[in-house]
Amino acid sequence: MRVSVIIPQFGRCSLTVACLSSLRRWHSSRDSLEWIVVDDGSDERDLSALRHVLPEDVRLIEQEHRGVTAAWNTGWDHSTGDVLVFLNNDTQTLNPWLSQVIEMLTQQPDALIGAEWLGARAEQGIPAACFPESPRPRLLAGWMLACRREMSERVGRFDERMRLYFSDTDWQLRWLHTFCEADSRLICPLNRNCLRHLAHATTRKLSNRSAQWKRDRKEFLNRWKNSQ
After folding, report:
1. pLDDT digits (tens, 9 = 90+) for 77-86
2. What is the mean pLDDT of the chain?
3. What is the pLDDT of residue 192?
4. What is the 8-class DSSP label of residue 225?
5. CA-closest candidate to residue 32, choices 92, 90, 99
6. How far lies 54's CA from each of 9, 13, 24, 210, in Å?
7. What is the pLDDT of residue 181?
8. How many helices (H) and strands (E) does the chain have?
9. Which residues are CB-neighbours of 212 under 8 A, at least 6 positions away?
10. Which residues lie below 8 Å from residue 105, measured CB to CB, with a gap of 6+?
11. Do β-strands 144-148 and 83-87 pair in parallel, antiparallel, or remain unpaired?
12. What digits encode the pLDDT tens for the residues 63-121?
């Protein structure tokens, strides 16, 4: 299966380069891999630096600043892989892991795969009515999500009304509702020694981070209130 790795980025191009370098240290484009970086409206200085250092086999797609959710959708639209991997740029690869993703999706095509579970505090903030069954299943942290293309197309695109936060949570809930009759489950198969998340290094310095979180949470709650 061909795998498309989609990495959004906004400024902080050094994070993107480090993310790609660590990933490509363990994986090669010869292994039916497609590398896509989506720049979400960085200033020209950062973008020029990124163009200069990206390897030739990495596709750089540029868009106006619309948020990480829109960048996921843009990368999805331009990808060609049978498997889609949405990977934050503030991650580091410590050991090979894409082969594990392919193996899991071969065994369970309707699975959604992540690298770790969402924290208990974050899960407690999601209304129980959003989940399709009881007891409610756990959700995945959104900094790495992988799935088969044909399944993702049944769920639909990420909701761009949530520009930065909660769009991954919304997407997982829609995944559960779409495949609940098929007994689909969100699974976390990756060895903890494979990937490291650098604690939201991309977003923690944004001046409007708190306000954006509140806006996105409001959009998320409105969507699920209206869907009940």
Report:
1. 999 999 999 9
2. 91
3. 79
4. H
5. 99
6. 13, 10, 12, 32
7. 66
8. 8, 9
9. 163, 164, 165, 206
10. 1, 83, 111, 113, 146, 147, 148
11. antiparallel
12. 999 999 999 999 999 999 999 999 999 999 999 999 999 999 999 999 999 999 998 88
**26 Cβ contact list (under 8 Å, min separation 6):** 93, 95, 96, 97
pLDDT of residue 213: 92
CA distance 17 to 13: 6
Q: Note whether 61 and 75 are within 8 A (CB).
A: yes
The residue whose two tokens read 């892991």 is 97
Q: Could you tell me the two tokens for 43?
A: 């200033």
The confidence score (pLDDT) of residue 128 equals 86
d(CA 111, CA 216): 26
DSSP 119: P
Q: How far apart are CA 105 and CA 54, in angstroms?
A: 29
Helix axes 44-53, 13-26, angle to 10 degrees: 20
Range 173-178, long-range pairs (CB < 8 A, 24+ positions): 173/126, 173/130, 173/131, 173/139, 173/224, 175/112, 175/147, 176/131, 176/132, 176/133, 176/137, 177/132, 178/154
| Helices within the chain (DSSP H only) | 13-26, 44-53, 68-78, 98-107, 120-124, 149-155, 167-179, 209-227
Is the CB of residue 163 less than 8 Å from the CB of residue 67?
yes
Please check whether residue 84 is in contact with residue 146, taking contact to mean a CB–CB distance below 8 angstroms. Answer: yes
Please give the structure tokens belonging to residue 109.
């095509």
CA distances from 108 to 7, 127, 142 (A): 24, 28, 20
Task: Please report, for residues 133, 163, 218, the alpha-carbon distance to residue 52 in angstroms, rounded to integers and kept in the order given.
Answer: 49, 28, 39
- Rounded distance, CA 19 to CA 27, Å? 12
